[in-house]
User: What shape does this take?
Amino acid sequence: MTGGNYWIPGAILYQNTRGWLRLGGSLSTVQIDALKAGKNRALQQLKLADSLSVSGTTLKIVNHTGQKLITGCPEGRRMWVNIRWYDGSGNMLREDGKYDVVTSVNGKPVKSIVELDAPNTKIYEAHYGMTKEWAQQLLSLGYPANLPLSYDRERSAVTKTLVDLASGADPYVDTFHFVLNNTVTKDNRIPRYGFKSEEARKRNALPVPENQYKNQDGSYRYWDELPLNPPSGATYAAIRLLYRPTSWEYVQFLYLANRKTNAFLANEGDKLLQTWLATGMAEPFVMAETVWGHSPASGLPRARRAAEPQGHSRQEIDHSFLVRGVATAHRRLSDLLRSGWQAPASRRSERHDHHLQGQRTHQPRHFHLRRDGVQPV
Assistant: This one.
């Protein structure tokens, strides 16, 4: 099984070299190679997870995975749209979803999404939180009133404590105390193909709010359509879908919230922060790219992957699902034939018989799987 967290393997290897792994240290060569291979698989998964297309001023993001996009442990994971808008002379007018330095820690600049709540910033993520009523119960159970629930990401100051929530006006607060959390305050991750409300309800996996992506029959769209907001004078935009598996805000919380009261885990927050800083800070990965408009000047960024056809030329199927199914079936059939498998005689066509007996009437065709279909070679 491979997900999309390409940062964790390097973090484990970094801690292994320093003897910091609390459980299962002194990794073998086989284990080290497996971690490196796992990172490569994670990056490949991310490349296949989605596609982007632009029609007019609408950006369409299609989920090609078998789960929500993005999935996995939601704390600290983000997928967002980064758009750089240019005028006819190639001057950048605005950047939406900008990723840049927001603070520094231990003398090192730290990057994150600059404007988390800006109107033109689209972030796909899940937020977990704690309700006011639950905070009051936790206080009655003896939890410390000054238990930090959130921090300022620039100054590292506590912005909300348990007693603040219990006695304040806010009905809930987002926090990374995932063991103590009792509510989902946001989940706008894109559903998978075939996602249905009743099944999702049983698994506590509904979007929040629930009506996002929902069709009248109770099924959910496996894509999102994002209205673009070009600034005045824009003629071209470079659009990227970025993913970061472990954000600064999450690492900061784990570092600061460790009260060092448990001797076994007392230094784990410090070690996590040092590991994150030393291994690239989980630098974002470009999952997909496309463009809006036409590039007027040389040197402007262009999509590394061709944009999908605009409008409804593919009958809104967007089925890399179908494409992948055909390619997978072809590959499995080829593997079976090479292994000597034969279909039951009553089900074999004359063409199959020719193929199995080596009396081919045509050359076998091999296929490459591409974003825009199965391409014969």
Summary: The chain is about 25% helix and 25% strand. Confidence is low (pLDDT under 50) at residues 305-331, 344-377. The longest strand covers residues 78-86. Residues 106 and 274 are 9 Å apart (CA to CA).
